[in-house]
Amino acid sequence: MKLFMIFSMLITLPVQLSVVRYNYSYYGEVIHSAPGMNFATYFNGNTAGTTFSSPEDIVVFDDVIYMIDSGNNTLYAIDSDFELISQHVSFPISATYQETLESQGETVFDDLTFNSPYGLEVKENAIYVADSGNFRIVKLNHSYEVIDVFDDIKDATFDEINFEPRKITVDGSERMYVVARNVYEGILELDTNGDFNRFTGVNPVSLNPIEIFQRSIMTEEQLAQLQLYLPTEYTNVVMNDKNFIYATSKPADDNAENIIQLINPKGVDVLKRNGYHPPMGDIQYIEGQNNYVIDGPSSLVDIAYTNDGIFTVLDQKRSRLFTYDSEGNLLYINGDEGAQSDKFSEGVSLAYLNDNLLVLDRKARTVIVYQLTDFGAKVNEAIMYHTNGEFAKAAEIWEEVLVLNTNYEIAYNGIGKYYLREGMFKEALEYFNLGHDRYYYSKAYKAYRNDKLKSNFGYIIGGIVLIAGTVIGFKIRSTYKKGGSILYED
Amino acid sequence: MKTKLKKFWFNYFSFPKYILFHPFDGFDEFKRYKKGKLSVAIIFISLFAFFRIFSYQNEGFLINERNPLMLNSLQEIFSVVLLIALFTIGNWSVTTLMEGKGKFKEIVMMTGYALFPIILIGYPAVILSNFLTLEEMAFYQLLMGLAYVSTAWMLFMGVLNIHHYGLAKTILAFILTVVAMAVMMFFGLLFFDLIQQFIEFVLSIYEELNLRY
């Protein structure tokens, strides 16, 4: 019996430890893939020499990891070796803010404390904290002194409900973009001094004709009982270095393809969706039937970007990380649900520390660090070369990627583009065929066909003349045989 | 040999073409002088079934969205046969009640002949689609659209002429045919579901008895 136990352990252990990595093929099938990222290390309260209670958000700025905790209302700063630099519970009022407060007639200057803060943003000259429980945004300087507090948002929306900021991001000119609770109009844009500017990136609501008809014949009471048609709520916002906002939102009933957005300063979603499938986390999922399986589209809670427009989203529902490139191609899928130290069960926040990816697990109060594997590093490198326009180098790297993962269809397109540029259309066609890139296949095919037509022009015209001549010749022959003539009508 | 070839040419090309462009005279000859042949209709139907398989596999890369690994020839053939059978039986049941003059055989033949444009245009178009770029695919779509529209036209004129109907009555016959097809499908599904449940029931009783004794 003991022997049996040992043997069964030996057999099942690799299964327990190994994870099957997958990706989606062009046809939407789940296919095996090499892992793009692997577990590197983790850190939590114990390893950093403190306690985390309910961490909510992490931000990496200048190789320092900032973390906000809604349980013990603390702001942590952790260095890139995952050692605690400092932690802060109360925040003194800075001298400049004291002056402004004095001019407003205040006399008492107590230190501020947070009440369940959920969001954090760190910029060069300030740290912004979405202090949800106190219904305000607190702006700190880098010596953790309060330099401003925004709590009075002058918009009709907040006559009825409290301003409860959840997530915050700040652009280059210090305008704040805030996701607030129970606000469906979009992302709040606040001016540098906290004045309400506008809502941006509104998710439109659309009714189909049948619903419009149903609503038109309903009474007021029936309409009141009907479920409200609300635009989807945003879950997180992250500003990229070009002042475009990466935003994730909750999936609507009929639209899961829109849950990742890249909102430009005009408020329009400009995310490229040129991949095989729109960026939306998992493409195949079960539609709700029972309580025993996780169903429905991915529920994305955070987004992080790194070089060359590569970004990763965090799916809280299935504890997965989806990495996309700037074109919307799904690069690799990582992350596992579980209680082991290399897995996470309730991811809430995501940040890139150079090439490493930090995932914050609220339940386990742990940050899991992922590092790129050979495969992932090569993919990123190839994309880097491709973005810089060095197609030859990119193609070289893509070849190496294909050695590591033959199923990787995006790589074929990368090589195809190189051949297309080199004028080797036949090879380009072959690779675009493998990579299912219609647009470039068409381009390559056009060039290929033109080449063939040009080089064989003589034969083609010769053939046409020959056939036409033969047909006419036979016609004349049969006319003569019948006793007619082609020279004059009879 | 020459007469055979000529006959073949007439049966499979000239006469269907004549019907397509002269539906009234064509279907009159089709019905009255028995120029329509069941063998031709069956070959057209099988060619149509084969066309579906052919286009599944060989349609140009730029327009073919289908996964070649998912091709199931039997399923394609079966779906064509089922569709034709549903239509002909539905049409026959409806037109019998609506004083249609057509016999069942004639309906089958007419349906087969109606597939002539798809077969004629479809095969070359599918081959052509391999030599077109993305922008030129409009030509392919135009060709296929033309094929399907003329098939619909032939089917419509066929029903009109075979049963000696007027315009309104033909349209009504078509609508009722669709209803009849839906009803048949419903009964078919019901029947299979019940059979399945019955078999399951018998099997479970057998299993129960087996386990007890």
The first-level CATH class of the largest domain in chain A is given as: Mainly Beta
Straight-line N-to-C gap of chain A: 110 Å
Strand percentage of chain A lies at: 25-35%
From the spread of the alpha carbons, the general shape of chain A counts as globular
Number of folding domains of chain B? 1
Largest sheet of chain B: none
Secondary-structure element string of chain B: HHHHHHHH
Distance between the termini of chain B: 72 Å
Radius of gyration of chain B: 22 Å
Unreliable segments of 5+ consecutive residues of chain B: none
Judged by helices, strands and strand pairing, the structural class of chain A is alpha+beta
The CATH superfamily of the largest domain in chain A appears as: TolB, C-terminal domain
The count of helical stretches of chain B stands at 8
Largest sheet of chain A: 4 strands, antiparallel
If you consult CATH, what is the topology of the largest domain in chain A? Neuraminidase
How many helix segments of chain A? 12
Instruction: Report strand order across the widest sheet of chain A.
Output: 3-27-26-25
CATH architecture of the largest domain in chain A: 6 Propeller
Largest interface: A-B, 10 and 7 residues
Rg of chain A (CA only): 30 Å
Describe this structure as you would to a colleague:
- Chain B: This is Yip1 domain-containing protein.
- Chain B: It is found in: Membrane.
- Chain B: It is a multi-pass membrane protein.
- In chain A, the strands form 8 sheets. Chain A has a 4-stranded antiparallel β-sheet with strand order 3-27-26-25.
- By secondary structure, chain A is of the alpha+beta class.
- Chain A contains 12 helices and 27 strands.
- Helix content of chain A is 29%, strand content 28%.
- Chain A has 2 domains: 351 residues, TolB, C-terminal domain (Neuraminidase); 106 residues, Tetratricopeptide repeat domain (Serine Threonine Protein Phosphatase 5, Tetratricopeptide repeat).
- Chain B has 213 residues and is an all-alpha fold.
- Chain B has one domain.
- Chain B has 8 helices and no strands.
- Chain B starts with a helix and ends with a helix.
- At the A-B interface, helix 11 of A face loops of B.
